[in-house]
Amino acid sequence: MNREDFNEGLLGFLDASPTPFHATQNMAGMFENAGFTRLHEVQKWNLKQGEKYYVTRNDSSIIAFTYPKSKNYVMIGAHTDSPNLKLKPNPVIKEHGVVKFGVEPYGGVLLNTWFDRDLSLAGRISYLDSQNMIKDSLVDAKKSIAIIPSLAIHLDREVNEKKSVNAQTDICPILSTNKEFNFENFLKWLLVSGGAEDIKEIYANELSFYDTQNASYIGLESEFIASARLDNLLSCYVGMLSICSVDALSPMLFIASDHEEVGSESASGAGGSFLESTLKRMFSDFEEYTQMIRSSILISADNAHAVHPNFASKHDANHAPLINGGVVIKVNANQRYASSSKTISRFMNVASSLGEPIQNFVTRSDMGCGSTIGPITASRIGIDTIDIGLPTYAMHSIRELCGSYDAYSLYKIILGFSE
């Protein structure tokens, strides 16, 4: 696969994955097409050596693995969720001639970027059918149905000097001027549009707004890719494609967990039991399990802050990654990243053998440092881990920016681990 084909697939994956549920569904479809067999956590597993498998949890987290029944696994970890505006359970607000929805910020949203964008709504709805069975359905309005208009500068003359956003009052998307709007009918329309039938009663929903603008190339020579949810669907795509590209006898595992942006403390997050229970079902003998863990490596892949050309002072000058400068190794003395000299050396050795460039990121010593699934997974599983990422501008904006060369470079490095 060349870089152009790789990136075209990436753009399609980004556009088709407005929520973690859709991203997981799309990855599951990719694994099916690549010959992976689906497993279910509530059923007994009868794993066969030399086969490939995948399993999901909560429809929003997914694990895929080859099963050569050997040690020395290369594991790639990413997350399916991105900061967004989630619909509240009782969201309808009718006032001042419009219908608007109450929302709650999910994760560290860069709120200013959500104004004046064409928004749609997607997620999961649970309902009861005529047989009194509870069913879940993924839905996507697939068109612009809402917008959060900015306040005119004439009514806020100091907006360019100071701008704060009140998460309760300022970011309610406007949907309609129809005074007869009915939320139940709206949810039913979403369900029917998504193919659901036999809807007796609607119970609950997990719906999020998203920007309808498609992912695209930017730059005079298409040096950049602009899209929503690059953090962290970019890494999901690389990990998914990597495990689909290796032989079934090459020990590799890919996990994409939900809820990283809010701390990972959930049943389907990296702080939960999903990966550990899967590994213990793969290696039921404790000796074999421990030997596999201690001979394997986890590549925790999450986006990295590229040095912003207009705000370069926000970076440590000696650790300021460049867009299209290669994969970034992330280090933190206080273990906010799990990289160690041993795991860094192993990663650098593979990258060097392929001629792929490597960069380093350390946050300024006078600034706080974010974290990833790396330290969480390393603590829970006991696996040697490296935190890496792809350089990105505008992280947690409604539309982020990455390079059109870096993700393909990471893909080649991960495959280099299996050679």
From TrEMBL:
Keywords for the protein's UniProt record, in alphabetical order? Aminopeptidase, Hydrolase, Metal-binding, Metalloprotease, Protease, Zinc
Q: What is its EC number?
A: 3.4.11.-
Needed co-factor(s): Zn(2+)
- Keyword Transcription in annotation: no
Q: Which GO terms describe its cellular component?
A: cytoplasm
PANTHER family according to UniProt: ASPARTYL AMINOPEPTIDASE
Q: Which family does it belong to?
A: Belongs to the peptidase M18 family.
- Cite the NCBIfam families for this sequence: PRK02813.1
The protein's name in its UniProt record: M18 family aminopeptidase
Q: What is the lineage of its organism?
A: Bacteria, Pseudomonadati, Campylobacterota, Epsilonproteobacteria, Campylobacterales
